[in-house]
Design a protein that fits this description.
Elements (H helix, E strand, L loop, with lengths): L2 H7 L3 E6 L9 H11 L3 E4 L4 H4 L9 H12 L3 E5 L7 H6 L26 H18 L5 E5 L14 H15 L2 H7 L27 H29 L5 E2 L1 E3 L7 H5 L6 E3 L9 H15 L5 E5 L18 H11 L2 E6 L25 H15 L12 E4 L2 H7 L10 H14 L4 E4 L10 E4 L7 H12 L3 E5 L21 H4 L1 E6 L7 E6 L9 E3 L3 E5 L3 E6 L8 E8 L2 E6 L2 E2 L1 H15 L11 E6 L2 E6 L5 E4 L4 E3 L5 E2 L2 E4 L4 E5 L3
Helix pairs in contact: 6-9, 7-9, 11-15, 12-13, 15-18
Bound molecules: beta-D-galactopyranose (GAL) and zinc ion.
């Protein structure tokens, strides 16, 4: 978060989406009074307000917004003001029906919901930029406005459009990338399945085809679609900058969302923001939300970030919408602060009375203030007020998980040895580190790895030459790496790197993978462990590599099946560090033992004394200890410290109630 915004908000931001236009003005005074009661200091206004802001072309009917912003400014509540461009109003769609997006199988989506636009349609871009400029001109310098919020969750609902205008834009994008058609045919492997193009206008987006689409075409279309939405963001940001220079601009990401290359996007955001909706019915909701937090911090290069949306209680869009458990809203909110969040916002302030989201929770529920949710909202506001000292502080991490959206797109395409889901794999690697109190960054393969001790490379199927060199250089200069199966397989055109897998890292790993032997869903293969005593034998799932050792030592061997006796995991000394390889997905205990060993080798503290479900993260001078358990828990912390939330001295033994939280700092 920029200095300017921190000045405006001071401490940790707290609030949510505020949609005053959905309510009679007579309720606004109550909103403001209750916001003050809850400690709200930052609200997002106007996200879906286009039809109320501009009921006709060229006309900004914003008297209602002037009055609402005035009330907020008077109350000292900052506003993250939306440009309002996420849902084109009916009049615009009527005038330009081509705005409605088209699916891969040629269906044009209808008006009547939201985010119904094709990013490549000039009429949409022009109208969005026009509204953003009008908003920026009118509200630049407004005392309430601390930040601009462009559109909303780009790519949500409609990550890509396949209409004719999108096809033209895709061709332009390809021309810029390849220059000549011959290079495109080469990159896309045109000789396979008779796909050589002889003229640019023959090239199409990957619409529904008889069988698997061309994977390189598919990959380029994913790159294009992310860039095309980014161009929409950039156009609005530039329009804002003309009138309101210096005020930070953001848009909200969806967590672990495949369509947008967040590393590319985050570079263009003054403040990185994310929406996080883990399912309370998932016993590991806190694990996924921690990954979201770490990812958001990481794509922003470690900058403090904003939790732009979460649900104070249940959402309305799953088949079954389980409420958050008592204390869960608080625990997940403080988790976000612990992992670098400087503002904690919810969707939305007041639960709606009409429309598609009326059963989505709000900070102020339908039941009013005599409710569990409201009491939790007030309590969280008080807690966040006490955490002002951590605002702006960094979250140190010694371990990086490599993640590249291009590889993710390519990995999850069809026609592979096996279906793999990156989020599921990341979760496997992230879990034991989370449980051991190891803070993890996500890093781009071409990013600066020099600050890390251990780099994990889970199923990085596609890697550029620069990324491959970067990992090798990290290991050569003493870093420890752990690379999993199906990494380093193809280049950026999805062309196999030949000669035995993973071609760029065979020397580093001291092995050659001769072929793949994936396991069917649900199948397990027993493993013999060569790990130290206490590191249990286990089993492998999902995948088996056929490994030919070329200097590496086996750590695990397959104990049954065709590969019995052959290595399943290895280690290899390299450049002062060590390179581990995993040819299968071990069961949880075995993977934990391997990661503990890698951490130990890298000099990263790997705690084994934390009860499962208790999170420990350091931010600035504070140690956050967060129980995600719905029962009490006791354990040893070592030493005495001051809890910022209660001002009590705690330790060395600590007893936490259900979802109890400590924010510990040195005693003065
Ligand atoms: C988000 C969206 C919000 C709201 C929320 C409900 O995807 O940005 O406007 O719809 O979901 O959970
Ligand atoms: Zn389109």
């Amino acid at each position: 978060m920029s200095r300017r915004e921190r000045q405006a908000v001071r401490g940790i931001g707290y609030g949510g989406d505020y949609n005053p236009e959905q309510w009679p003005e007579s309720t606004w005074a109550e909103d403001i009074r209750l916001m003050a009661e809850a400690g709200v200091n930052l609200v997002t206004v106007g996200v879906f307000s286009w039809s109320r802001l501009q009921p006709a072309p060229s006309d900004l009917t914003a008297g209602w917004l002037d009055r609402a912003l005035g009330l907020l400014a008077d109350a000292g509540i900052g506003v993250d003001l939306a440009t309002g461009t996420a849902s084109p109003p009916p009049w615009l769609v009527a005038a330009h029906p081509e705005i409605l997006p088209v699916t891969a199988d040629g269906r044009r989506l209808a008006l009547g919901s939201r985010q119904h636009y094709c990013p490549s349609v000039p009429a949409f871009r022009a109208a969005a930029v026009d509204l953003a400029s009008r908003m920026a001109r009118r509200y630049a310098g407004h005392p309430a406005v601390t930040m601009w919020h462009v559109s909303n969750e780009y790519g949500c609902h409609v990550p890509a459009c396949y209409c004719e205008l999108s096809a033209e834009a895709f061709r332009d994008w390809l021309r810029a990338r390849y220059g000549e058609l011959g290079r495109l045919n080469e990159a896309w492997g045109g000789a396979v399945w008779s796909q050589d193009y002889t003229s640019w206008d023959q090239v199409q987006p990957p619409r529904t085809t008889p069988t698997f689409p061309n994977p390189a075409q598919h990959l380029d279309f994913a790159r294009f679609s992310s860039d095309e939405l980014l161009a929409c963001y950039r156009a609005e940001r530039e329009a804002i900058a003309v009138h309101s220079p210096g005020t930070p601009v953001t848009t909200n990401f969806l967590s672990l969302f495949r369509p947008l290359d967040q590393f590319r996007w985050a570079a263009e955001l003054d403040v990185v923001a994310v929406d996080s909706y883990p399912d309370p019915a998932d016993a590991e909701a806190h694990l996924l939300s921690a990954m979201t937090c770490d990812l958001t911090r990481s794509v922003g290069g470690g900058r403090p970030w904003v939790l732009m949306e979460q649900a104070p209680n249940a959402v309305n869009w799953r088949p079954v919408n389980v409420p958050k458990a008592p204390g869960q809203y608080r625990a997940l909110s403080l988790q976000a602060v612990a992992r670098g969040g400087d503002a904690i916002l919810s969707f939305q302030w007041r639960a709606a009375a009409t429309g598609a989201e009326k059963f989505h929770s709000g900070m102020l529920p339908h039941a009013g203030t005599d409710s569990r949710v409201w009491r939790e909202v007030v309590r969280l506001g008080a807690d966040l007020g006490l955490l002002a000292p951590v605002a702006g502080c960094e979250v140190p991490a010694e371990v990086a998980l490599l993640l590249d959206w291009e590889s993710w797109w390519a990995l999850e395409a069809d026609s592979h040895p096996r279906r793999l889901r990156l989020i599921e794999l990341l979760r496997e690697f992230y879990r034991p580190l989370f449980e051991a109190g190891v803070t993890v960054d996500f890093a781009h393969p071409e990013g600066d790895l020099s600050g890390y001790r251990l780099v994990l490379v889970p199923a990085l199927y596609l890697v550029s030459d620069a990324g491959a060199d970067n990992v090798r250089r990290f290991a050569a200069t003493g870093g420890t790496v752990l690379i999993s199966f199906f990494s380093g397989i193809v280049d950026t055109s999805e062309r196999i790197r030949l000669g035995g897998y993973p071609a760029p890292w065979r020397d580093l790993l001291g092995l050659r993978v001769e072929e793949f032997a994936p396991l069917p869903d649900g199948a397990v293969v027993r493993l013999d462990s060569v790990l130290e005593a206490g590191e249990a034998d286990g089993s492998g799932r999902v995948w088996q590599d056929v490994i030919d050792l070329r200097g590496a030592d086996p750590l695990l061997r397959y104990a049954e099946g065709h590969l019995a006796g052959q290595p399943a995991a290895t280690s290899h000394p390299y450049g002062g560090g060590e390179a581990f390889y995993l040819g299968t997905l071990p069961d949880r205990a075995t993977l934990r033992a391997l990661l503990a060993r890698a951490c130990h080798r890298a000099g990263v503290a790997f705690r084994t004394d934390l009860p499962p479900g208790v999170e420990m993260v350091r931010r600035g001078g504070c140690l956050f200890v967060i129980s995600h358990l719905d029962r009490p828990v006791e354990f040893e912390l070592g030493g005495k410290s001051l809890d910022l939330l209660t001002s009590d001295i705690v330790g060395p033994a600590v007893a936490l109630g259900p979802r109890g939280i400590l924010v510990l700092t040195a005693r003065d």
